[in-house]
Prior knowledge:
The complex is a heterodimer.
Chain A: E1 3-5, E2 9-13, E3 18-25, E4 29-37, E5 44-49, E6 53-57, E7 60-65, E8 70-75, E9 84-94, E10 97-102, E11 106-111
Parallel strand pairs in A: 2-11
Antiparallel strand pairs in A: 1-3, 3-8, 4-5, 4-9, 6-7, 7-8, 9-10, 9-11
Chain B: E1 5-7, E2 10-13, E3 19-24, E4 31-37, E5 44-50, E6 53-56, E7 65-68, E8 75-79, E9 88-95, E10 106-107, E11 111-115
Parallel strand pairs in B: 2-11
Antiparallel strand pairs in B: 1-3, 3-8, 4-5, 4-9, 5-6, 7-8, 9-10, 9-11
Amino acid sequence: GQSLEQxxxxxxxxxxxxxxxxxxxxxxxxxxxxxQQHDGGAPTFLSYNGLDGLEETGRxxxxxxxSDSYGYLLLQELQMKDSASYFCAVRDxxxxxxxxxxxxxxxxxxxx
Amino acid sequence: EAGVAxxxxxxxxxxxxxxxxxxxxxxxxxxxxWYQQILGQGPKLLIQFQNNGVVDDSQLPxxxxxxxxxxxxxxxxxxxxxxxxxxxxxxxxxxLTSGTVSYExxxxxxxxxxxx
Lengths: 112, 116
């Protein structure tokens, strides 16, 4: 079967660094995406890892290890506006084409 | 460029009634997705279209849910009859292609459905 696991909640202070982990089990893994969703808002794309290694986009970085079926999102210099839910999403290549499976999400609380 | 448009934004219906949601993807985006997001959970894919063909509808409750994408542009999702457990936000998303190049999905604001 297909599954993704990520922590349900993470709390950190403003200015700190936080890492949100994601482990996955899928049959046709192709890549890992991260999305941010504020309460009442729509998910917005943050990053994508198709290959092993680190991808950096401003304060956000994402890492993938295919051999460990593991990835993480790293948020640096945390700001209050980063308080949101973060979803990892696996891109799976199956017979019919590419399919996306979202994790349950990690709720990040940033404290002053 | 204009984003993904959805309507209505909110809908309240009684169980056993029917409801329809509309989505207009970003111009030129070949792939369209409908997701169901229950409060506190991640989006769950209901159906994925590539142009006007269905790529995946394995998690669509076909006894009550239906979706179409005529002419490969906008799409409608219908629930008939609705159940209490259908209360959720229904998100529409689009992407340039479901091929190797584009993995980024652009989401609309969603329709919050409450079934009483």
